[in-house]
Amino acid sequence: MEILIADDQRTTGLALAWALEGMGHVPRLASSGEEAWALLRKGEWRLVITDWVMPGMSGTDLCRLIRSRADRPYVYTIILTGLSGRVNRLEGLDSGADDFLTKPVDHEELKVRISIARRILGVQSELEERNALLRAMASTDPLTGLANRRGFQAAAEALADGGAAGLPHSLISLDVDHFKSYNDTYGHGAGDEALRAVAAILRSSTRRDDLVARVGGEEFAVLLPETNAPTALRRAEAIRRAVASADWPRRPVTISAGVATTRLAWEPGAIAGLLEEADRALYQSKRSGRDRACHAGHPPPSPHVACA
User: Fold this and answer.
1) Where is the Response regulatory domain positioned along the sequence (predicted)?
2) How confident is the model at residue 302 (pLDDT cuts 50, 70, 90)?
3) 155: closest CA among 213, 229, 216?
4) Cis omega (within 30 of 0) on the bond before 73?
5) What is the CATH number of domain 2-137?
6) Facing residues of 295 across strands?
């Protein structure tokens, strides 16, 4: 197990590192709290043993910084100290420490406390994995495996948080044409098969960084980061052709698509306005005869492309 040690006393730190190596662990010695914090910010350390009293950043300061990172995996911290007494222990626990080691370190005690840490981290890792699975399930459409509306909204807002403001982004909103009739004629099982097939075509027709989502019954959306209006319209038309030319076992399936592109800086909440524009363009595609793509305010390049 990789273990980060923070200790300004090199002799003490090296002795602890050698003891941990003898137990089969991989220690890394940092000579200060600041150095340990820099390593924690760069890597995924799950166990830290830190001296309490150090110049500059103390062990309790380091514990508080570790606990302030709510978005990172849990880090088990053990404070190494010669301090004793109830008040000191309470202060250490209040800073976020999980356990204590008393100087000089007893190797048998060290082995037991590391074993406790591994057991607790194992339970914590399992809990983190289950929480991640629940988050994924909450943002995934179970029928197609695509993102659902919630996942789509979250990813779109993350685009703003990720510093992509000012770049052109486009959105394709699309519907399966006459899907209710398809369901009524062939049954809901066949309708589900058609939706899964459309989802597969969308996946194969988009880039790795594009976000494809099923946002309603027969409604899909594709977010195209860093994509201007002409390119987005060509992409929508390519998707339309791919669906129309697919080998459908019962009857031909087509889609209508509406495309919108950002005009101003991308900001949190901008996705709502972009969706409205794309939906208006989608409505224009349907009014123009379906099986076509329309961009809000962009001229049509082909007979299958309408203009809002």
Assistant:
1) 2-118
2) very low
3) 213
4) no
5) 3.40.50.2300
6) 259, 307
